[in-house]
Amino acid sequence: MTTAPKLKWREVAISQIDVPREYVRKQPNDDADKALAASVKLSGIHQPLAVIPSAQGRFTLVKGTRRIAAAEENGLDKVPVIVNFPPPGTTGKALKDYRNRLRFILDSKRQDLTPSQEVAVIEEAQRTFKLNNKEIAALLGWDPATVTNKKRINHYAKPIRAAIDNGEISLHHAFALDGLRPAAQVKVFSEMRSEFLSESGRKVQGLVRKRYAPSKHPEMWDAPDKSAEKISKRVTKRKQLIQVRSTPVSAKELDSLNSDLEMLQTEFEDNKAMIEHANVLLQRVGVIHRAVSNDETLLDYVSAKWPEHVPALERFSELV
Length: 320
Description:
single chain, alpha/beta, 5-stranded mixed beta sheet, 60% helix, 7% strand, disordered N terminus
């Protein structure tokens, strides 16, 4: 089973990095390459290259061909990299497959994809590299349930997918159309558009079940009996939960709850302010961290002076 790559940011000599022949760009973009070279000359390389370790202390490039070229053009000897460690025992063709899979994922994560496009990338990766939902989720840093839910977008008619991609409705709102035939999905969405755009996903689900119940509109459902049974179970379970939670509350208890709520709200605002302050500090510390990480003399000094802090420094490199 594929595991999520273990990441560590460091600087290595360009001479130690091997660029696979298939990754060399066959059609350079002169304007973009010149702009990148000018940027590197002005402020260095901000986005580390992705590499995997190879034999005798060398590395194989996964992503960053243009950045290496720009660094060489500016006379740089070293570049920042993130070292991705394959699962133990990965060699030969399996190592090449791992490298290609990682490159594919890095490409897809850098793009601003719509939900439909994102699912298309996920499914293409699964077909190409024979990954299940759990494995693709590990590479993307998601929960497996997230992959399963995202892929549900393919269950909906084209106009519904377009509404999700355009940000009109969320995928959670679209769950209200589960079990309906494609034409019926379009009909329901068209007739209830205002509710879909103004109400919560849970509220919309209840409204759709009530207005277009499978028992009253069986022609709109793929499996009316099965859908009716499923809806009935959900409604029953929700009623049971509501009944359990609806125990009487005295005036005194209500006052106490309101007092607790005010206190929690105050704590929430305080914590929010602390988080915002921490984010500012993180950005400032990130500059210092990059300076230390990119200078071998400083890095050696920190390791010798405060060896107990080196693990924390390495963990922090994943955040900045």
